[in-house]
């Protein structure tokens, strides 16, 4: 059975194709009775718009590209849920790629998405990305762009981020107020925007409470799972911290496991809090205190801004940075 078309609906209802098209789009130009007639008939006949025909007519693909470092990361999977929720409601498809923390892969992903003529792009930068000329190039080509979570101050684009500074400040202050003085901060590579903001929040809390910053208590980790364990073992053996504050999902689990492997009592000997969206944090033993990013809201907001830009043809002069508050969930591990 062939798919029904707008022409078929128009012929059956003795209406013009333009009237049917406007009725299906909910145009104010069409009266409510006609809209109801068209929509009921379209539903009865199982009518679905032809995406290829729509894209040719509107000169749009009705698709947006999303590039994240890793879908398996809880934050990014939740952010994608937010993106897809908005896109689906607005009639857009989402094409998702992973950079796997590789600049070259990120570049290849962008080239592929632009080649597919997506209407816009959402991206969270890879761990290797310092040069953003590839993003500036797609902007020059007129492709709408929103950068979220891992951003760069080198590019003029709409950005959506969590309040990384405040979240790190509150986590560190909580540890201080619980009596901890030697707080190790295990964090991501130093070039990441999130790393710098969380480190500044950590430092600010120490300064507020008169605790000298000790650079030996700050350790940067790459993305290999075994690296975090080695870093934790080293800092525990050499610096003897009484608390640990980690700066990502991956580091939270890897570091927590390393502390437990050393048979160190949490929180009696070492208190622990992580900047993480782990959904199983409350199931750990003891339950893990966390600073939670509003990942779904970040994805949702980024998608809304992108689609507004696509549909309203906003200019680069209207760019803004949206900062969304984090939430601190205190559990047994940090008390």
TrEMBL record:
Database matches in Pfam families: LacI (PF00356), Peripla_BP_1 (PF00532)
Any idea which UniProt keywords this protein has?
DNA-binding, Transcription, Transcription regulation
Record-linked SUPFAM superfamilies: lambda repressor-like DNA-binding domains (SSF47413), Periplasmic binding protein-like I (SSF53822)
GO terms, molecular function:
DNA-binding transcription factor activity; transcription cis-regulatory region binding
InterPro entries, from UniProt?
A: HTH_LacI (IPR000843), Lambda_DNA-bd_dom_sf (IPR010982), Peripla_BP/Lac1_sug-bd_dom (IPR001761), Peripla_BP_I (IPR028082)
Q: Where is the HTH lacI-type domain?
A: 4-58
Q: Per its UniProt entry, which superkingdom is the organism in?
A: Bacteria
Q: Which residues form a coiled coil?
A: none
Q: Which PROSITE patterns match?
A: HTH_LACI_2
PANTHER family assigned: HTH-TYPE TRANSCRIPTIONAL REGULATOR GALS, LACI-RELATED TRANSCRIPTIONAL REPRESSOR
Entry protein name: LacI family transcriptional regulator
Organism field: Emticicia agri
């Amino acid at each position: 059975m062939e798919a029904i078309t707008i022409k078929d609906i128009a012929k059956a209802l003795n209406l013009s194709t333009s009237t049917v098209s406007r009725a299906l789009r909910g145009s104010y130009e069409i009266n409510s009775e006609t809209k109801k007639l068209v929509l009921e008939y379209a539903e009865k006949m199982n009518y679905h718009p032809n995406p290829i025909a729509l894209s040719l007519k509107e000169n749009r693909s009705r698709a947006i590209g999303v590039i994240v470092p890793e879908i398996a990361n809880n934050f990014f999977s939740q952010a994608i849920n937010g993106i897809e929720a908005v896109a689906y409601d607005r009639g857009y498809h989402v094409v998702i790629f992973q950079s796997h923390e590789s600049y070259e892969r990120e570049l290849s992903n962008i080239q592929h998405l632009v080649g597919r003529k997506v209407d816009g792009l959402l991206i969270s930068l890879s761990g290797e990305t310092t040069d953003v000329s590839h993003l500036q190039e797609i902007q020059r080509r007129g492709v709408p762009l929103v950068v979220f979570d891992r951003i760069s101050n080198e590019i003029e684009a709409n950005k959506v981020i969590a309040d990384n500074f405040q979240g790190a400040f509150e986590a560190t202050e909580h540890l201080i107020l619980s009596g901890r003085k030697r707080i190790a901060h295990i964090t991501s590579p130093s070039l990441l925007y999130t790393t710098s903001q969380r480190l500044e929040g950590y430092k600010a809390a120490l300064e507020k409470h008169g605790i000298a910053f000790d650079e030996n208590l700050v350790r940067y980790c790459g993305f290999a799972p075994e690296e975090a364990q080695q870093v934790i073992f080293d800092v525990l053996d050499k610096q003897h911290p009484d608390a640990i504050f980690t700066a990502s999902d991956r580091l939270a689990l890897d570091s927590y496991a390393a502390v437990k492997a050393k048979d160190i009592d949490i929180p009696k000997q070492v208190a622990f809090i992580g900047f993480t969206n782990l959904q199983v944090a409350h199931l750990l033993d003891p339950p893990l205190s966390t600073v939670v990013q509003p990942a779904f809201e970040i994805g949702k907001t980024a998608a809304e801004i992108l689609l507004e830009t696509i549909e309203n043809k906003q200019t680069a002069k209207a760019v803004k940075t949206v900062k969304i508050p984090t939430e601190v969930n205190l559990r047994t591990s940090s008390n």
